[in-house]
Design brief:
Distance between the termini of chain B: 26 Å
Radius of gyration of chain B: 33 Å
Oligomer: heterodimer
Largest interface: A-B, 45 and 42 residues
Distance between the termini of chain A: 42 Å
Helix content of chain B: 40-55%
Structural class of chain A: mainly alpha
Order of helices and strands of chain A: HHHHHHHH
Structural class of chain B: alpha+beta
Order of helices and strands of chain B: HHHHHHHHHEEEEEEE
Strand content of chain B: 15-25%
Number of helices of chain B: 9
Shape of chain A: globular
Largest sheet of chain A: none
Low-confidence stretches of chain B: 1-20, 121-126, 171-183
Radius of gyration of chain A: 18 Å
Strand order of the largest sheet of chain B: 3-2-5-6
Strand content of chain A: under 5%
Helix content of chain A: over 70%
Number of strands of chain A: 0
Number of strands of chain B: 7
């Protein structure tokens, strides 16, 4: 009981942050965190609980992405104007931006593995841990990260430049 | 740059290998350098090399710049707010609810199994079997099916069966008894605050020997727990903002209990949410 309390206190915020950056919205992130903790309770606590939680979250994310993609494909099948309009109105009602922020879009331009490596590094995991968590060789983590960062920055810049040209003023600082 | 892959391996993983002072720095090494992932020796080599090599100095500086820029970008993109503590409590409550629900489901199965096991005197002495729920459920299923099939046959006074399985009549009775013995208590009640306001969504958990079942109160603070075995000994009521209260259960041969609980308020102190940039410790 107190163990659960402690887990939540210590890891909830970093996990939500990590997952929100991965999936782009808070609600899905919280859902995934919930599932992560449910699994944590069903398993005996292991040696490195922080790495365990993030690995579990990353694996759940993969399932989520697959499901999301399937849903999107399904939506495309049944897609008609009404559906679109309805969704847009729901979105504006919820005050969530219909389009992901440039940062988010830049992150999406990365492959799943590169994105995970980058975000796990942001969470303070070491190269060795990252390698183990996402199945890279320890030697290639540095190169992967370097390329991922370069790509994110390039994409971010081209995206914000495009917005500026289009007359948008709402550019993230 | 000469053979970058080999360089990074040298610096990252074989710290006692001879360092070639004039080898250029690879992209991966520059990244490891800016993330504080190099060994002391590796750092020294990068520093020594970049004194003379302008190309590598630029690479390292560029890598460090990119690292900082990405961190900044990410930090700005989802600024964490006080909403955080709220979300944490909400998700934690949901997780606990899921746990309580699954505990409740499992304990009902446990009770049935223990009870049937006692009556039919099946000796499943290996504890590993009991740890495996699927095996337990399957065993129960087989026992119950076999038991009821035999019971049905013996009920028709089939003499052939009795001849073949002289123990059958006996065990069939036991299986039926096991079912009869199962739950008979209903616990209903309300949960209110000291001032008499109903508390909704409070967790009510019944606990006893190998038993733990939970439910949440509705919007009027009412709860209803049926089909409880008499092994339940206490009721625990948890609600956010109130002290957890435990109520001992006494049946006195009654088949239903009416509980009205009053919870005492408790000021919950949440930890402050500290927002700060992630700074990596240098290895």
């Amino acid at each position: 009981m107190s163990d659960i309390d402690r887990l939540f206190r210590e890891y909830f915020t970093p996990l939500v942050r990590y997952l929100e950056r991965q999936v782009g919205d808070r609600d899905s992130a919280e859902e995934l965190v919930q599932e992560t903790f449910v699994r944590a309770m069903r398993h005996e606590m292991r040696i490195n609980e922080r790495a365990w939680l993030f690995t579990t979250a990353t694996n759940l994310l993969r399932d989520y992405a697959r499901r999301d993609q399937r849903q999107r494909r399904h939506h495309e099948h049944i897609q008609h104007e009404e559906f679109e309009r309805e969704r847009d109105s729901i979105r504006s009602a919820m005050e969530t931006p219909a389009d992901p922020s440039p940062t988010q879009q830049a992150l999406y331009s990365l492959g799943e593995r590169d994105r995970s490596a980058l975000l796990l590094c942001e969470e303070g995991f070491s190269y060795d841990e990252i390698a183990r968590m996402i199945g890279l060789s320890p030697q290639s983590v540095g190169t992967t990260l370097s390329r991922a960062r370069k790509r994110v920055l390039q994409n971010y810049e081209s995206l914000t430049r495009a917005t500026q040209i289009a007359g948008g003023t709402n550019v993230e600082s | 740059m000469s053979n970058p892959e080999k360089d990074s391996k040298l610096i990252l993983h074989t710290s006692n290998a001879p360092t070639s002072g004039d080898a250029h720095i690879s992209e991966g090494t520059a990244s490891a350098f800016s993330d504080g992932e190099l060994t002391e020796r590796g750092v020294e080599r990068v520093l020594a090399h970049t004194v003379d090599c302008e190309l590598c100095r630029e690479l390292v500086e560029e890598t460090q710049r990119m690292r900082a820029a990405v961190s900044e970008l990410l930090a700005a993109s989802n600024a964490l707010t006080a909403r955080d503590a709220l979300g944490r409590n909400r998700v934690q409550a949901r997780v606990l609810q899921i746990r309580d629900d699954s505990l409740a489901r499992n304990s009902v199965i446990d009770d049935a199994v223990t009870s049937i096991n006692k009556r039919t005197r099946i000796n499943l002495s290996r504890p590993s079997i009991w740890r495996n729920r699927t095996a337990v459920i399957a065993t129960t299923g087989i026992v119950v099916l076999a038991g009821s099939a035999i019971a049905a046959l013996t009920a028709r006074n089939d003499e052939r069966v009795s001849r073949l399985f002289p123990w059958a009549a006996d065990s069939a009775v036991h299986v039926r008894m096991a079912y009869k013995k199962l739950p008979a208590v209903i616990i209903t009640g309300t949960v209110k605050s000291e001032e008499g306001f109903p508390i909704s969504n409070a967790a009510v958990v019944v606990m006893g020997e190998s038993l733990s079942r939970g439910i949440r109160t509705d919007s009027n603070g009412n709860f209803d727990l049926g089909g409880l075995p008499r092994t339940a000994v206490k009721l625990e009521i948890r609600a956010l903002g109130f002290k957890t209260t435990t109520i001992p259960l006494q049946y006195h041969d009654a088949n239903s209990l009416l509980i009205s609980a009053k919870l005492v308020r408790e000021v919950l102190k949440l930890d402050p949410t500290v927002i700060r940039p992630v700074q990596k410790a240098h290895k």
